[in-house]
């Protein structure tokens, strides 16, 4: 079954943010709620050379490499996620 939504906007809410004060580049972990429908845990707010950016939830594979376990399918949604997290972190 395929469900087609006519609505193209998605409500993204930061429901939990754990700030780290360790002097490292990893600044916070956060959980997001999407459209009052589901929660994704494990986003990371990271300080890079060009400012803050968001790391997607990830896990280590059997080969010891890290893999993203959540991937936005559009640049628009990815930017919405980053905007929500950076704004919440800076508030």
Give the SSE map:
Layout lengths: L11 E8 L6 E9 L3 E11 L2 E5 L2 E3 L5 E3 L6 H16 L1
Antiparallel strand pairs: 1-2, 2-3, 3-4, 5-6
General shape = globular
Fill in the CATH topology: Arylsulfatase, C-terminal domain
How are helices and strands ordered from N to C? Answer: EEEEEEH
C-alpha end-to-end distance: 41 Å
Radius of gyration: 14 Å
Mean pLDDT: 90
The total of beta strands comes to 6
User: If strands are numbered along the chain, what order do they take across the biggest sheet?
Assistant: 1-2-3-4
Number of helices: 1
Helix share bin? 10-25%
Per CATH, the superfamily is Stage V sporulation protein G
pLDDT under 50 segments (min length 5)?
none
Question: Strand share of the residues?
Answer: 35-45%
Number of domains: 1
Write structural notes for this entry.
The structure is a single chain. A hairpin with a 3-residue loop joins β2 and β3. The chain is of the alpha+beta class. The chain has a single domain, classed as Stage V sporulation protein G (Arylsulfatase, C-terminal domain, 2-Layer Sandwich), CATH 3.30.1120. Helix content is 18%, strand content 43%. The strands form two sheets. The chain has a four-stranded antiparallel β-sheet, covered by helices on one side. It has one helix and six strands.
Index terms:
91 residues; alpha+beta; Arylsulfatase, C-terminal domain; 4-stranded antiparallel sheet; two-stranded antiparallel sheet; 1 helix; globular
Q: In summary, what is this structure?
A:
This protein is of the alpha+beta class. It has one helix at residues 75-90, and strands at 12-19, 26-34, 38-48, 51-55, 58-60, 66-68. The mean pLDDT is 90.
